[in-house]
Amino acid sequence: MIKLKNLSMSYRLQEEQVDVLTAANLTLKERESIAVAGPSGSGKTTLLLLLAGLEHPDGGSISLDDTDLSNLSPDELADWRRDRMGIVFQSFHLVASLTALDNVALPLEIAGAADAEARARGMLKSVGLGHRQHHYPSQLSGGEQQRVAIARALVHAPSLVLADEPTGNLDKRTGEKVSDMLFNLHAEAGATLVLATHDEAMARRCDRILHLDDGQLIEKSGDAVFSG
User: Fold this and answer.
1) Within 13 Å of residue 122, how many CA atoms lie on the same side as its CB?
2) Domain count, the chain
3) Does residue 227 belong to any structural domain of this protein?
4) How many of the other CB atoms lie within 10 Å of CB of 170?
5) pLDDT tens, residue by residue, 11-20
6) CA distance 44 to 34
7) What is the mean pLDDT of the chain?
8) Residue 220: CB partners within 8 Å, gap ≥ 6?
């Protein structure tokens, strides 16, 4: 489903060029779950932004379902994200002026779905927040906000879910609950999951663990990634 070929990406940091990806290659199968681990600043978030078409690589190609992202216009990329992707951010990115229900319904409403509210209500029940649907983000705990964000990312049944440190701002107990929910919903939806995380327990639940360091994606066992 996903193929990265000779992907390169770098940034200028003052007078220094920082290579985030250097001719990186990766193939992901449909419905596979992978964790991308690596030290802070290694480029995990950048990789997800590239997969989402929100950043553009310096070289190489990204193909999703045999579609090269570089061949899509900005409007086509936006449609692709709306129809095919679900993105879970570490900082939630909920719309403060919308209720939990309206936040979850938003991508469906943008797509013109007639049953947006009903589907959003059902997804909120799936994440255990049916009783909080009329609350605003400021009235929800961090764990509840992240569950709303997960519901929003999955409500349109995307084929690809990108999750950037989804438990990074949560305490351990809440993080475990959110992790359970994300993996359960991922299994039910049959989507491909790409997870950037420092959370060892969460990473070990994935089919594969990749380590991103020095611009390369290297498959390793959990012990090799997290020891030391």
Assistant:
1) 11
2) 1
3) no
4) 21
5) 887 778 888 8
6) 12
7) 90
8) 209, 210, 211
